[in-house]
Amino acid sequence: MKNLLTAVRWPRWALPLTRTSGPLPRPSVLNWAFDVTLAAVVLVTVMVYALEGDIDGRQDGGRPEPETGFDPDGPAGPLPPEPPEPPEPPEPADVEPGWVYDLPAHDTRSTIAAVLIALIATLPLAVRRRFPLAVMWVVIAAAAVTPESAPRLTFYACVIAAYSAAAYSPHRLATLLSLPVMYLAAGSLTGSSLPTVPNEYVPLLVIVPITIAANGLRMWKQRTEDGNARVVTLERERTEAVRRATEHERSRIARELHDVVTHNVSMMVIQAGAARKVMDNSPDQAREALLAVEAGGRAAMTELRHVMGLLTTDADTDGELSPQPGLARLDELIAGVRDTGVTVESINDGEPRELPSGVDLAAYRVVQEALTNAVKHAVGASITVVVSHRTTELLVEVTDTGGTPAPSAADGNGRGLIGLRERLAVYGGTLEAGAPPSGGYRVTARIPLEPV
């Protein structure tokens, strides 16, 4: 059901009436149960009044005036002896004025009209949360036709409807304009007086609102404190998440820089040392070694440019970045190591398949780090690189036969293998490094893959 204000085509000057401060409320099952019960209680109260009350305004009930024993217009003189008094009839039950009037007879038309007004005014209260402004307008219409002698038929409904519209209606301007209309309809236009309240109910009408207001204030303060505590907790969690993300990003960039710089610089150092040794006796070999140093420097700059691209948001640098290396460039990596004079054998096992970019890069970095460590720590050793494509995993194994450490081996701090383990852990992989029974050193990486 569309809201009445939005369904009607209003003129331009009346458009502010259609503005809302939010959506209509969506009452819960408990809210529906409470509103239906409230409407039923009010309905029963006003129905009792409509059926038993004095709708025509005859509050004296037509009782005859009691006779006295003295006639002021009669002849003077002593009165005749009074006859014995008959037994007094039982006194009628006390009837509180203004609550239920004791009438011997009712006007049928007035009673039917009062019942209809009571039904029109109270039944809509069951949907007062869902359609607060519409309920208020219905109650205003019922109050406008309420007899002057029976204000209680719509008085309770007016109070509840006015509160509901003020509390739940998103049409604030229309609600504020409807409140004085209800005031006029309930009393000023009809000329009726508000119903009186018996004295015994006055303390109840004072204590109950104060209790409800105090409880509402306490709940509001508690919700405010809980909300502030949640905000503080969320802020603390956000700060912690930012800190962890920053540390994770720093570790990732550190791994990339280590893998890029360590391998290429190690190859450049070896080639430069070889060029220095043969420069006098074999200028051609020295020239080739220097060309290898130049190629290694260019490769290092290319990968460093890619790593630095991770730290910038400038879109103009995208065209200068090369793709991330993977197993497709493994032959190029091994050829660069062979140029330094190291014997490297490459073995591919299984049918190659397309790998996720992160897994492809991780496998490449494993081979790169293992080759770098072998060149630094096992001078004169031969190296075997095995890449095995299996159904559920990718196996990368690099084994060297052992040798003597190079002078640059003293600069190592073990960060390379730690970075590889962290990189592989992202994809559920594992890394094993150690000396096999046959001697030398072996690095084995296992990365799980989705079965084909």
UniProtKB/TrEMBL annotation:
Region named Disordered: 55-98
Gene Ontology cellular component terms for the protein in this record: membrane
Residue intervals passing through the bilayer: 29-51, 108-126, 131-147
SMART domains registered for this protein in UniProt: HATPase_c (SM00387)
PROSITE patterns: HIS_KIN (PS50109)
Record's catalysed reaction(s): ATP + protein L-histidine = ADP + protein N-phospho-L-histidine
Pfam families registered for this protein in UniProt: DUF7134, HATPase_c, HisKA_3
Name used for this protein in its record: histidine kinase
Species whose genome carries this gene: Phytomonospora endophytica
Taxon lineage: Bacteria, Bacillati, Actinomycetota, Actinomycetes, Micromonosporales
